[in-house]
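Before relying on records like the one below, remember that each one covers exactly one chain. Contacts with other chains, cofactors or solvent are not represented anywhere in the record.
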Amino acid sequence: MIEDTPLPLARFSLIEINDANVPLCLRLATSLAAKIAADLGADVLKIEPPGGDPVRRAPPMLSHGESALFQFLNTSKRSVVLDLAREKGRLALRALLATADAVLFEEPAPIAELPRSGKATPIEIAAFPLEMNAATRPVSELAIQALGGLMHMIGEPERKPLKLAGHQASYAAGFAAFTGLTAALAARSAGRTAPHVRVSLAEVMQWVNWKAASGADAMGASPGREGDASEFQVVPCRDGYVAVVYTLSQWPATRALIGDERLADPKFATRAGRRQHIGALYEILKPWLADRTRAEIQKIAQARGVPFGPVFTPAELLRTEQYVARAFLAETTHPTLGSLLMPQLPVQWNGRSFAPRPAPSLAAAELAA
């Protein structure tokens, strides 16, 4: 590991603007994109509204009353509180934007025209495509997932749709915004004019769930919730659950793994046949899985090239062999919260991992103002 190697984005200066009056799903996307840049070495200054970024009060909460979500999304950043509703705050922001390489912000923030018109490349996160002219439409991540067809994919068909856990629409949009940001920084670094980057959550979800559109085009209906008729299922094993997944080419290895002669029946020879007789297929698979632990299943499945996957609880992930071997969770020392175990970026740079610095405190942000 080369500790003195400069981090890849160390020469760039970024501004992240958080507005108290935009939907949570947009603020999370902006913060994630800026977090990745900060952990990769960029100097990221977070502009918070009076009272701080509302995410500071978003659950889940740590034992000290601090938001775990905020701590995760704001590692390695600096922070300052500015009242952008006042001229003094806007003047301060203009001065900061004059020296920044890029600025990340949300639509429909009242100050959006300010970062759009400066020298810093604008990285804008919105809910809907520009063509919809829907900047002021109320939105939530629940609505975005529904529009993207994801809620049509999750849960049992006879029950109500389920929202995906966590903030997957926001985070997918954050990754997309970071990709646009790096392209813009590369252009600036090469002496070219970087384009205005605009990412919408609705479009990102359409891309994530591309099967909905392609399925509707090919079959007249998008794939939906199949429950027990699903080709790939999560089923019980001796000490929890395991996900049954394999590709078309992996069926012979899966059949050999289970070792039940009934799987040689011609009705299971093709994917169409397996889907037609899915109930009979899982009647064979489930007893084999129920008699083994997750670790046993994973070990013998991997040996045959079959990607059966164990289902872990969050607490179990802390001890998972892959996470430990990759040092994915790094201990950081927060000035008021003490020791925190935080995920680091799952990539390396010249053999170097990116251990995050703690998120800035509100007191420090207010003092900086």
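The chain has two domains: 13-211+331-368, 231-317.
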